[in-house]
Request: fold
Amino acid sequence: MIWKKWGFQDMRDMIVEINNLKKNYGSKTVLNGVSLHVKRGEIIGYIGPNGAGKSTTVKIMLGIESDYSGEVKLFGHDISDGSIEYKRKIGYVPEIAEVYDNLTGHEYLTFIGELYGLDSDLAEYKAKRLMELFGIGEVYHSRIVSYSKGMRQKLLIISSLLHNPELLFFDEPINGLDANSVMVFKEIMTQLSAQGKTIFYSSHIMDVVEKISSRIILLHEGKIAADGPFEELKRENKDGTLEQIFTQLTGFSEHKELGSRFVSVVREM
Amino acid sequence: MKDFRTLKLLDRLEKVFTSFDIDYKSMRKILQVKLTMDGRRIPTIFSQNAPKKDKETSNQYIKSLWIYVLFGLFMIPFLFIGDSYLFQMSLFYGIFTFFVMTSMISDFSSVLLDIRDRNILFPKPVNRRTISTAKMVHIMIYLFFLTIALVGIPLIAGLVKNGLIFFLVSVMNILLIDIFVVGLTALIYLSILLFFDGEKLKDIINYVQIFLSLAIMIGYQLLARSFVIIDLTISFEPQWWQVFIFPMWYGAIMDMIMNGDFQPIYLFFSALGVIFPLLSLWLYIKFNPAFEQNLQKLTYQGKAKEIKRSKLGQLLLTLICRTHEERTFFRFAGFMMKNERDFKLKVYPSLGFSVVIPFIFIMNDFNTDFDQISTSNSYLSIYFSLIIIPTTMMLLKFSGKYKGSWIYRVAPITQLRPMFSGTIKAFIFKLYLPVYLLLCVLFLALFGVKVLPDLIVVFINSCLYAVICFMILKKSLPFSESFEQVNQNNGALVFGLMLIAGLFAGLHFISTLFSYGIYLYLVISIVTLWMLWKKGFDITWEQVIH
Reply:
């Protein structure tokens, strides 16, 4: 990683700084004092149980959710100052792939590219080329409605990268991709990070997170329960896999019992 | 879940179904679930203010049948006027076929082309025959209601006037037509699916729906006047080419039985009228597996044609939209308006209507003396075509895919101005302009070149009107809300906005009273447009986020 090679921490290389972030939906607390700092080139595995607040954190950083307390700085600028220029440097793959799918791949991607300020010819060229390289070139002019789940996901990934962003938020990005495409995608991530792009990666597939992340942040009940490289987490928790660390840190130990109770109801006839 | 009266009625036929190796219990369950789902599908206009409590019981499709009852009433005169069964009844059956066929395509397509059956029911231990019969019966139930609504009253009227035999023959004929229409629709779909992909089929269905809505809109206007136009007393001899007009087959059956006139051509027509429905039904059953197989095509699409951008289009675009952002949204809105079927279904009929309505008013004025037209100022009726503007401006914020609008929040959009101005320009140039130009050609032909300045004023006023509508209407990001949010209250608002169009027409009329008044009006319009265009789109993010 570049920042490791340089061996010093420059403030310019601090891409994400979140201090004591809190967010409520009505009386329900979603984020309860989250603080984290991410440097250029890191791949953050951002994990946690359902409803832990992962997506909310990401949405706050993207400016989709406002009305939080605490400080959120991206690229050294507080995002609450009203300027949205920082969004130019961000790419986002949401967990639920809602797109204007009555458009064709060509129409949608060109639109997205242009939204981020790309010239329309360049957007068109890049969209076409990237779709070809990702193996979905033949549906470039077809409506997105007719895409398979994997094709849609690839389209979303491409749409997040068209404008060559500095910071990427991937929420379950490999949903529906086949094994070969997952390999390609992992390679893309590694290369992007080597180029100094910073990646926030949320997923429930623990072994993928374990392998690709340079650092893992585990969110539990609106707080950070663990933060560090996988090796470090392993040392602290004396458990083999990330999955085991995950269940241990989130205090979940009933899976055996729940499973057997479930099966016993299944067997009732 | 509610137990439907229809199903209880169906229970009496249980034996029949069982004898065809159909698992009646499963079929009944499937139908019950489908009817329940149909009951919950609420048409968009009711969704906002509908009382929640009777959601479960009311089936909106059944409620919408009153429209067909109305059309049925208009069919009654065909039974009474004239004395040629062949001609009258052919016309009667023809109208009936038109409604059943179009309604079949627009309302039942979703049932016929439902591919969820495949994924949900096929893996379950229910035999195929039961599933496809359930589908058939589902359609038949609705077709039954539609038929009753449409011809119930006319048939009773016919019973009173022409007696029992007429009634029985009519019932039989109508049953045969129903069967033929179902079989024919399914076979048409099958052949489309064989050669094209699902998207094409959906487009075709979409256009049929648009055409149907337009036909109904114009039909309302014309029905009252139509009986003057159609001469029901003409003498009528059957011709060989009429063999292709299948309502004639049934007219022939009626004429033959009522008049006892067994000439060969009548016998031939009658035979066709009986054979073809049964044949189509048989073909449908035979090819049903192939049909189900091809339904799979609905989910994917073959390689599509590449669309090259034309140099001229690019040039025009840079002329119309000055900034990069505005062009972005112009293109986007253009694609959305072109591709979104929900949007097209709501807007295109009124688009077609706005071409027709000025002429309906012109015809009203001049149904006696056509020569006066070119010297009159009834070209002002072109202002009626402006009704398309408020309705469309209101719909621009909706989309069936509104959830895709997260992208607006994520993307670096500092100014909202280009978003709105680009979208509105796209509407004006891609939807309104073609209609306007068509009207211009027709009006120039009708009124002569002297109305050219007036027509130019109309276009400037249209643009002005669009901006005013935009400024008055509640602001929302384009294509960012669900169609279910369209509410009834808008009717009053649209009416209010139409008064503004009336104001434009009024001023236009006043301007024609003075010499050169029209040019003064033109200048005033252009200046106002220029000023409002500068001011009107200054919207902040706070105004659009609710």
In short: The longest helix of chain A spans residues 179-194. Chain A has a mean pLDDT of 87. The first strand of chain A starts at residue 14 and ends at 25. Strands of chain A lie at 14-25, 28-39, 43-47, 69-74, 77-78, 90-93, 167-171, 198-202, 215-220, 223-228.
